[in-house]
Amino acid sequence: MAVPDFGNDGVSIAIVAELKPLAPPPSDDISVCTHLSSDRLDRLALISARWGGPIVAAVLVDSVSAFEAVRSDLPQRPHVHIIACVAQGGQYPANHLRNVAQRAAATDFVFILDVDLIPDDALYPDAVAIAQEALRPSDKLVLIPAAFDFIRGDKEEEPPPSSWGALLLSLKRGSVQPILNDTFPAAFSCLNYAALLSKHPAGELFFETTYSWPCEPYVIARREGLPPFDERFVDYGNDKAQHALELHNAGYSFHVIRRHFLFHWPHQRAEWAKPSVRDAALPKVLELTEKFQWESGTKRGKNWKTGGALPVGTYRVKDGRIIIWTGEKVGQ
User: Fold this and answer.
1) Share of the chain above pLDDT 90, in %
2) Which of these, 88, 175, 211, 265, has the minimum number of CB atoms within 10 Å of its CB?
């Protein structure tokens, strides 16, 4: 039974300009793949200052002329690849942009990162070494740096911690916390912060953790075979969570990197993410989320939540009936 195509909610993206790297990066390197609107270039500069490796950034602009106006603000480094995109229809198309960046990466490994998550100073060289050792072609494994943020309000005047030692001091002072711990802890609870911050065997570089919905970590993975993001998610909510579920259902294991982190650098909320806009889109997001959950599991013949077997192509069992999301009721 074929899986219905629900389209992409009428959103399309056109690439209008590119600033390609001066030279190709080493193939066994890690490319940060990120996305942003042109008013977030200061965040891209912060990532560039701390990540010494390749960066591919899909930047949403209003026009080619708007992109030309901000070119001087772009990071000036040999392995930075900037892709200017214009979108027609819908809200901010985060998953479209993530796919644009991921497809353009020229390295064996990719680091799928949002632009407001800043890595610690030493993450890049250690991540490359771990990836080259741990992410073999035959393995379905992702590496995850834990993420943190400030506890109280916007702290743009206070720079994010730059080292593991500085982060631990901030945790001890009570000024930082695991990301979203006070608003939506489920989004990152699968990272097992208790294990991360506990004593561990000397030389242990990462540890395996257990996936649970709606976890939405930022992952380092082998680019080959990595599933794309579902581009139907164009409103706020579950756009990253769907990708983590797809990885889980595809058999990937999740491993948290020790002694490294990302730090959420707050910014003014974009128009598309404001509560009134989010609330209006919520019913559509929830319906799409349920569709995706069942699609992701049942195309592999299992219930996405329990792991139990279901006929391939069925999306949902409700009141004893197999329901296809086109509205057809099988056996009726």
Assistant:
1) 54
2) 88
